Amino acid sequence: MKGPLVRRVSTIAVAGISTAALAFTLTACGESSTESGGGSGQGVGLAFDVGGRDDHSFNESAARGLDKAEKELGVKSKMMTAKNGETEAEREQRLSSLAEKGYNPVIGVGFNYAKSLEKVAKDFPKTNFAIVDSVVPGANVDSITFGEHEGSYLAGVAAALKSKTGKVGFIGGVDNELIKKFQAGFEQGAKEANSKVEVTSEYLGSTDKGFNDPAAAKDKAKGMLDRGIDVIYTAAGLSGNGSIEAVAGQKDAWAIGVDSDQYQQPGLEKYKDHILTSVVKNVDVAVFDMIKSVKDGKPLTGQHPYLLKDGGVSLATSGGFIDDIKAKIEEAKKNIVDGKVKVKSTV
To answer: Distance (Å, rounded) from C-alpha 345 to C-alpha 41?
Structure first.
């Protein structure tokens, strides 16, 4: 078992380009790859989900773990990025190409890699694999999961306590089991903080494009704002940038970020005064743990959940916007950790 995880807050200097331009670049380019260090084919292979490393959210958190490993462990790496609407064959090819070139470990960032990683891990039994947000069987696979529902519960508490209209909203990128964990926790936390609060939950779609469509999230958020919803929590990867942009355009409205501390993201700096908090999912810690275990010759395998109790998820305090409700947030956290509150993982 691991000891307590140390939350590492860091930022990556990225250009503050608009979400629309970012979305266009990623869609136009489709699959991309970069390699640091030499071209020897040795090091870490990281396969991002749609949106790429500069999504200011989920993928970027994974990238921070790799950046730390490069700096502290001296590893080299190759990063590749998925595109919208991929087939299983395309995902298999990406993972296989990394394994064939000798990258070890090979890490699939996102549940979309579950089926392909299970197959490829069998084909390369001497290579260590890891998957984020899914559980995949295999003697050479590290399955990394998180307590998204627990962090989202705290976000729900914050939303309910900070809302002036008594109406809060949740926007999910893709209507699936994983994102419903975010929704379930958020709704429960909001209702238990204020039984009279009205919670509206909506989704961008049922395909992975929902994680790579800032324009759609912006429109969805505008619709919520028009109905008097003044706090919006978006769990949609790169798409969430569009939601944050919409919220920032309205006075007295708050956005809640996800996966990374989005207040700290340079690419979202002009919106940060409207980012109430973020549910931080420490993918960077998990990715670093995996890389270090392989480097040390003791590769992690099996299931490794990163929960609220050990710092796997947390609620960001950047900006000081929830300082006035800190005591209630801490009380809610303690109740979860102590088992007094059981957070739902589905709706």
So the answer is: 40
Beta-bridge partners for 320? none
Q: Which helix (H) or strand (E) holds 146?
A: strand 141-146
Average pLDDT over residues 239-251: 97
What is the spatial distance between Cα 221 and Cα 215, in angstroms, rounded to a whole number? Answer: 10
The percent of residues in the chain predicted with pLDDT above 70, rounded, is 88
| Tens-digit pLDDT profile for residues 71-82 | 999 999 999 999
The domain made up of 148-281+313-337 has a fold known as Rossmann fold (3.40.50)
With residues binned 3-state (H G I as helix, E B as strand, rest as coil), the percentages for the chain, rounded to 5, are: 45, 20, 35
**Distance between terminal CA atoms of the chain?**
30
Q: What's the mean pLDDT in 18-28?
A: 34
Q: Is 40 helix (H, G, I), strand (E, B) or coil?
A: coil
Q: With bands split at pLDDT 50, 70 and 90, how would you rate the model's confidence at 298? A: very high
Quick one: residue 110, left, alpha or beta (phi over 0 = left, psi -120 to 50 = alpha)? Answer: left
pLDDT of residue 54: 87
Confirm if 63 and 79 have CB atoms less than 8 A apart. Answer: yes
> 19-147+283-310 has which fold?
Rossmann fold (3.40.50)
Spacing of C-alpha 127 from chain mean position: 25
Can you give the pTM of this predicted structure? 0.84
Nearest to 55 by CA among 78, 76, 79: 79
pLDDT at res. 39: 35
pLDDT at 173: 97
| Domain ranges for the chain | 19-147+283-310, 148-281+313-337
Residue whose structure tokens are 């392909």: 116
Beta-bridge partners for 250: none
